[in-house]
Amino acid sequence: MRTQVAIIGAGPSGLLLGQLLHKHGIDNVILERQTGEYVLERVRAGVIEQVTMDLLDEAGVGVRMHEDGLLHEGVQICVNGVRHRISFKDMTGKSVMVYGQTEITKDLMDGRAAVGAPTIYAAYDVSLHGILSDTPHVTFRADGKVQQIECDFIAGCDGFHGVSRKSAPHAAIVTHERVYPLGWLGILTDTPPVSEELIYVRHPLGFALCSMRTPTRSRYYLQCSLAEDIESWPDERFWEELKPRLDEEARDRLVTGPSIEKSIAPLRSFVAEPMRFGRLFLAGDAAHIVPPTGAKGLNLAASDVRYLSQALIEYYAEKSEAGLKHYSDRALARIWKAERFSWWMTMLLHRISEDPFDQKIQLAELDYLFRSKAAATVFAENYVGLPY
Ligand SMILES: Cc1cc2nc3c(=O)[nH]c(=O)nc-3n(C[C@H](O)[C@H](O)[C@H](O)COP(=O)(O)OP(=O)(O)OC[C@H]3O[C@@H](n4cnc5c(N)ncnc54)[C@H](O)[C@@H]3O)c2cc1C
Question: Distance (Å, rounded) from C-alpha 56 to C-alpha 155?
Fold first, then answer.
């Protein structure tokens, strides 16, 4: 088999890259180790920046997002039982869209199926070869046979645990990591959200987030320890832990119900530099992770794909390598800003330190955020997404 770009991973970054390249006549094959059904069931991101919406539109898969997504013009932050609102619209003129990652994945998969571009699901033992040569290729096992794809470039879009980053020459890669001593316990329920906007909660009992997917489907998170066993969290316990962290109005409006999904996600900041090794380019979670507090992971995956797709389109149209040469630096400049914002929001809202000094500093910083128009503007600019 031969293609121009072999894409490893059919998460949002791999599927979006494939769609944008296909629109410009660039052949690509996606190799995904899971089944399509499995990929579709992973409940993750839900907040989409304007620039990500624009890219989904450019890829021709934004129709359902505009019909079913919920535009949010602000966000609420509840500190010790008192709620404050930050208006994105007033501060930046922009909004974010609440639209689930599962729906985006479905739209991208449908878009790919509609144009007949190939995705090989259940592709095992994917292995990258010759990335520093002009003739890279990928081998894998599917349908009981070992197969090979020759290509011009390999896009490593296979997430944090994928094979692509591990295939880069060890001496050429530098990693930066911060592991937080906590996780998010999340549940999805078919109950109406407690508020029309997201509520981030800072409380002495720990962080909580009231989010949603649709007007009838809610997503709630609680800060938990990394040692937590999901089996010890029946739904009743989740609701009992959430209620005291909310303000009175939210508590009154809270509709509880059985969870339809429940999971624990550890919080981590991670960046691998650079993002190019010869003919291999990393994009999305394969190169970086942010704690979900700032809602940046999927949006960063999309911005990497924007830079990478433009560079590859330029390469094939004009035989220019300029975009490919600058890809890593351009992507990393944006990534580090999102890393900073996600780290800052995490430190601001979670109960991380038991030291009263740290807790007083947290409260002083929040007070400044609510009183200072400049601070609120910086927050809003980062949350809705910095311009390219
Ligand atoms: C609880 C939670 C909440 C979040 N909330 C938000 C939010 O509100 N906003 C936001 O922007 N982001 C959010 N994120 C982050 C977001 O979900 C990720 O950043 C996003 O999924 C990254 O997409 P990706 O395609 O790069 O990687 P992934 O989604 O991880 O996809 C990688 C794909 O590669 C496949 N793969 C892995 N290894 C191999 C292999 N060896 N061979 C072939 N295929 C392989 C995987 O099966 C997977 O399908 C959240 C994450 C979590 C956990």
Answer: 19
Report the chain's mean pLDDT, rounded to a whole number. 97
Q: Quick one: pLDDT at residue 71?
A: 96
Sites in the chain below the pLDDT cut of 70:
none
Position 136 scores a pLDDT of 98
* pLDDT score of 229: 94
Q: Is the peptide bond before 274 cis (omega within 30 degrees of 0)?
A: yes
Pocket (CB within 6 angstroms of ligand 1): 8-14, 31-34, 39, 44-47, 101, 123, 126, 157-159, 161-163, 184, 186, 265, 284-285, 292, 295-299, 301
Dihedral angle, C-alpha 365, 177, 388, 201, nearest 10 °: -40
Which CA distances in Å does 323 have to 152, 166, 320?
Answer: 15, 24, 7
Per-residue model confidence (pLDDT) at position 43: 80
Query: Which entry of 296, 307, 315, 327 is annotated as an active-site residue?
Result: 296
What is the torsion angle, in degrees rounded to the nearest 10, for the CA atoms of residue 186, residue 188, residue 189 and residue 192?
A: 90
**Whether residue 288 lies in the annotated active site:** no
Task: Give the Å distance between the CA of 193 and the centre of ligand 1.
Answer: 25
Which member of 12, 136, 193, 292 is catalytic? 292
Known catalytic residue at 292: yes
- Please give the structure tokens belonging to residue 334: 């944006």
Q: What is the pLDDT of residue 75?
A: 98
pLDDT given for residue 42 in this prediction: 85
Q: Residue 118 catalytic?
A: no
Give distance in angstroms: CA of 297 to centre of ligand 1: 8
- E-state strands within 117-258: 119-120, 124-129, 137-142, 145-150, 153-156, 174-189, 199-202, 208-214, 217-224
